[in-house]
Amino acid sequence: MTVMSGMAVSRPDHPSLLPALLAAPDPTDRVPRSARDWAVDIACFILAMSFGGLMLFVTSQGSPAPHHPPRLPDVLIGALGCLALWWRRRRPVELGIALGTVSVLSVSVAGAACIALFTVAVHRPFRTVALVALVHLVVNALYTAVFPDPTQAYWAGLLWGAVVVAAVVAWGLFVRARRQLILSLRERALRAEAEQQLRVTQARHQERARIAREMHDVLAHRISLLSVHAGALEFRPDAPPTEIAKAAGVIRASAHQALQDLREVIGVLREDTAEETPERPQPNLGDLPTLIDESRRAGMTVVYENRLHDGDAIPTALGRSAYRTVQEALTNARKHAPDATVTVVVGGTAGTDLTIEVRNPLVATASGIPGSGTGLIGLAERALLSGGRLEHGPTPDGEFRVRAWLPWPGETTPAGAAGVRP
């Protein structure tokens, strides 16, 4: 009666009577007995022997005429039935039918027959249990007819037998239902734990994707600066020493900063990070002048127009998205239009939209800096996640324009104007 052998309850019912009764044992039925199994089997053996002896004593007392089978065959059959209980785990259905059948010739085997019926009720489908119980009821009717009790009516003997069989089956079904409930709760707990691990894994992957976007935005900008200054040194070897030293200083500072950013990203991506380290401060819209100065020192011509109203009230996440948008647009302009004038316009008010526009004339020559082609896609995704949108492409005026609209929440939103895009 172990939980392991209880897995047989999931076997579907068989279409015919004989296979339902003689269902093949599960491989789990052959699992070696544990200490608990041995204790249960010994208790069942002792209980069957005791109940069989009690039945022998009851049927021998207080009757004017014997109403029991011959004693010697009765005792032998009862002893063999009790010994057969040691195989009830492997062949519960066959043992239940056999012990129920021989009960017509022995009252001492009644205890073993009840335990075998109980085992079938615990480990087999209800259809099989009903068929084995029917065998016990029929045998009880035959026994009552062959060895009638003169002190009670025939129907009373049938009723007592039916009550005993029903009680044994009900008890076995209760134990089976309880085990199924425990298994169900255990599976539900395992499933909940697996789902929790899946959510943690998904959150980790999303965080890594966010870090990858940040790494692309930061490193692409700094490496493009390195490429521009290195290209200037390559094509102007006769430049004054002061300019060469200045360009070398910019290259050194950009390379140092790029390595620092890369080291921080790789540290976050490590699997064996024991403790969560706080993120360093992220750039905001207030850092735009510094970003534009870096681009100007790299040789770009950048025109910056700040049309913000109450720029200090911009939320941190919104300012970071705006900063990354300008950074990626300047990087693209440096790659594809290195000598063109780039215009950066940032405007908006709280309660409407924060608008970012970066445009430059289309040119036929590029810097030769390779690009992944995913920068603008990442910006569009960032804008979409923020509830805004982003457009990019050539204009009829012969310029390439990147324009983003990001929602700027505020208490001054006019009624009916929420969500309006220019």
From TrEMBL:
Q: Where is the Signal transduction histidine kinase subgroup 3 dimerisation and phosphoacceptor domain?
A: 207-272
Q: In what residue span(s) does the DUF7134 domain sit? A: 36-179
> Which reaction is recorded as catalysed by this protein?
ATP + protein L-histidine = ADP + protein N-phospho-L-histidine
The region annotated as signal peptide is none
Judged by the first EC level, this protein's enzyme class is transferase
What are the EC numbers?
2.7.13.3
The name on file for this protein is: histidine kinase
- SUPFAM superfamilies according to UniProt: ATPase domain of HSP90 chaperone/DNA topoisomerase II/histidine kinase
| Molecular function via GO | kinase activity
- Show the PANTHER family listed in the entry: NITRATE/NITRITE SENSOR PROTEIN NARX-RELATED, NITRATE_NITRITE SENSOR PROTEIN NARQ
- Residue ranges crossing the lipid bilayer per the database entry: 38-59, 71-89, 95-122, 129-147, 153-175
Q: Which Pfam families match?
A: DUF7134, HisKA_3
Give the UniProt keywords, A-Z.
ATP-binding, Kinase, Membrane, Nucleotide-binding, Phosphoprotein, Transferase, Transmembrane, Transmembrane helix, Two-component regulatory system
Gene3D superfamilies in the record, alphabetically?
1.20.5.1930, Histidine kinase-like ATPase, C-terminal domain (3.30.565.10)
Q: Does the keyword Transferase apply?
A: yes
